[in-house]
């Protein structure tokens, strides 16, 4: 979640990529090993490609250039799902603002 380590990935997409890669968002970037970094890179690319294909993420009034709502909101597994069950393990997702002051949702069981 630290923008000094990797800037430009929005909060929604960072949450989703970290969940997919199984990485705890509170971990320092220098504590992510090479295999985890590859998994995170792949998760970021996948999340961004999916979101682009689905015209982004609409929660309220966001519309794309054609006036369409973004459909990626239907695919969210972490962001905005605080208190709901994790899609992988079923444990309750937790939310915090303590990580870089950004809304962060994670599964303490799946994200290490």
Description:
This protein has a single domain, classed as Helicase, Ruva Protein, domain 3 (Orthogonal Bundle). The protein contains two helices and two strands; from the N terminus they run H-H-E-E. A hairpin with a 7-residue loop joins strand 1 and strand 2. The two termini are about 15 Å apart.
Task: Write the SSE topology.
Blueprint: H1 11-21, H2 34-53, E1 94-96, E2 104-106
Query: How would a textbook summarize the main sheet?
Result: 2 strands, antiparallel
Low-confidence stretches: none
Secondary-structure element order, as H and E?
HHEE
At the first level of CATH, the class is Mainly Alpha
Overall 3D shape: globular
The computed structural class is mainly alpha
Tally of strands = 2
Q: Span between N and C termini?
A: 14 Å
CATH architectural group: Orthogonal Bundle
Please, what is the average pLDDT?
91
Beta content: 5-15%
**Largest sheet: spatial strand order:** 1-2
Helix % is: 25-40%
The CATH topology label is Helicase, Ruva Protein, domain 3
Question: Using only CA atoms, what is the Rg?
Answer: 14 Å
Number of helices: 2
Number of domains: 1
């Amino acid at each position: 979640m630290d923008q000094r380590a990797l800037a430009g990935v929005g909060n929604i997409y960072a949450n989703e990529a970290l969940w997919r890669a199984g990485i705890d968002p509170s971990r320092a970037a220098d504590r992510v090993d090479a295999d985890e970094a590859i998994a995170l890179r792949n998760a970021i690319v996948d999340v961004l490609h999916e979101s682009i294909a689905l015209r982004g993420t609409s929660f309220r009034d966001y519309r794309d250039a054609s006036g369409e709502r973004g459909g990626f909101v239907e695919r969210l597994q972490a962001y905005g799902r605080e208190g709901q069950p994790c899609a992988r393990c079923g444990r309750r997702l937790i939310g915090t603002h303590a990580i870089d002051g950004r809304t962060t949702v994670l599964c303490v069981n799946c994200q290490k």
